[in-house]
Design goal:
473 residues; mainly beta; Immunoglobulin-like; 3 domains; ten-stranded mixed beta sheet; eight-stranded parallel beta sheet; 3 helices; 14% helix; 38% strand; disordered C terminus
């Protein structure tokens, strides 16, 4: 009984503990105004509404695959970065979704971060770090107040595995003493997507930094509409020596405020045009390689087999070479790294075949003959007492083949009766059977039989006379 009572008390304590946590995450008035409530609310997910300014030294985290909507409601979340390593005031974990908005009339809501240790260029400090989740900014100000060199308002990262890291800014302001937004293409699988539909992006050094797209990194998309304002240059920087540009960049010229411009570093030749006019007549910057296409023309014996469009710098998947009788075909180019229009031709080589002649003792002769080429059959190896021939007669090669010697045994010679003729029957005389020798034997036996009978009869007669005394003296 005591054991059951102890278990019941333990369960009650656990329930009360969870209830206390839930209460802290969702106060009765529906708004938060303490650091503890804010941390718990982020961990729990759901809708968060600020009820006052909050200062926090704790890092806030949106759990993986969770959804949080943060309404600043005119108030400020102030964070302090005391770290000596990478740090973010708000971390968006893989698959998580965070929306920041400001429902206040004056649109005075803010999220700010100040660093206390300058780590130089060894580690970053960001107000919001999007680690392969989704961030939507519908209002408010997100600002890094400095204190370290690598300071970002928003850091959009694709480090590691995952599907994407996406940041969409519809309104509000993103600011930093260094670069307002970094779009860091530092993964190998995820898409790095930054879309600025509106609002103001302002960086003392750069407004937007697209960092390290290259052939070994994931692809990315940077889109800035004319409704947005960019105070500060956009910097498109590629790893030195890269030969590919796996991104799409479209920045409306009207978004670039004052002397702000698009600047580039290490962009591969042929992969970037500084400016062009799109289908809507807007001037945009950073035409991506995927918009530039080369044509690969495939030919066989001078006839066009196919034409294939391919993005510059990409490989083309070549089809099978068209079949040509008696030939082996191959393309004269492997289709790798297409950088301009190109013709690729089928090269045909006449086939060679092996003709193998076999006889009883194994291989007799082997010939190598080109397709359609005439050749002479060798003499068949002889064998005493046999007639010989090949099992097939071939005069031109059409493929590998084996030809076998066939031996047929010669049978014993039959007697020659060509000069012996039978006499014609004579119907005018008595028809007699020809003397074959059997009648002579029969006659001889008959004579002997007669003699024997005569001797028996004579002997018998003599005995009777003797018995009757006619010859007694």
């Amino acid at each position: 009984m005591k054991k059951k009572l102890s278990t019941l008390l333990l369960v009650i304590c656990l329930v009360l503990s969870l209830a206390q946590t839930a209460f802290a995450a969702t106060p009765e008035d529906g708004v938060l105004d303490t650091e503890e409530e804010l941390v718990a609310a982020f961990a729990a997910g759901g809708d968060i509404v600020l009820g006052g300014d909050i200062t926090t030294t704790a890092s806030l985290s949106v759990p993986a695959n969770a959804t949080v909507t943060l309404d600043l409601a005119g108030y400020t979340i102030s964070g302090t970065d005391n770290s000596n390593a990478n740090y973010a005031l708000i971390n968006i974990n893989p698959g998580a979704d965070l929306t920041v908005k400001d429902s206040s009339v004056g649109k005075t809501g803010k999220i700010t971060l100040t660093a206390t240790n300058n780590r130089g260029w060894n580690s970053y400090s960001s107000v919001i770090s999007n680690q392969r989740g989704k961030l939507t900014v519908d209002g408010g100000t997100i600002e890094h107040l400095g204190g370290t060199d690598m300071a970002y308002g928003i850091d959009n990262l694709t480090n590691g595995k995952g599907t994407y890291a996406e940041t969409v800014i519809n309104d509000g302001t993103v600011k930093s003493t260094y670069r307002a937004i970094r779009q860091f293409l530092n993964g190998t699988e995820a898409q790095n997507i930054l879309t600025v539909n509106g609002g103001t992006i302002e960086g003392t050094n750069k407004s937007v930094w697209m960092q390290d797209p290259n052939k070994n990194a994931n692809s990315g998309t940077l889109t800035v509409s004319s409704d947005a304002t960019l105070n500060g240059d956009v910097y498109l920087f590629v790893t030195a020596g890269s030969t590919e540009w796996p991104v799409t960049v479209s920045i409306a010229a009207d978004a670039l405020n004052g002397e702000s411009a698009v600047k580039t570093g290490n962009i591969p030749d042929g992969c970037f045009l500084l400016s062009y006019t799109d289908d809507n007549g807007n001037t945009v910057y950073g035409k991506a390689v995927e918009d530039e296409v080369a044509t690969v023309t495939l030919l066989a014996d001078g006839t066009v087999v196919d034409t294939i469009p391919v993005k510059l710098g990409n490989d083309v998947v070549l089809p099978e070479v068209p079949v040509k009788e008696g030939h082996t075909g191959a393309w004269d180019n492997d289709g790798k790294n297409i950088t301009a229009d190109i013709e690729i031709n089928a090269v045909y080589t006449l086939n060679k075949y092996t003709i193998t002649f076999m006889y009883e003792n194994g291989f007799y002769k082997i010939l190598t003959v080109k397709h359609g080429e005439a050749f002479e059959m060798p003499a068949v190896p002889e064998k005493e007492g046999y007639t010989v021939t090949w099992d097939k007669v071939v005069t031109a090669a059409t493929g590998d083949m084996t030809i076998n010697a066939v031996y047929t045994k010669i049978s014993a010679a039959a007697p020659d009766n060509s000069n012996t003729s039978s006499p014609e029957p004579d119907d005018s005389k008595e028809n007699k059977n020809p003397n074959t020798g059997d009648d002579s034997v029969l006659g001889f036996v008959t004579v002997i039989a007669v003699i024997c009978v005569a001797l028996v009869l004579t002997t018998y007669s003599l005995k009777r006379k003797l018995s009757s005394g006619r010859y007694m003296r």
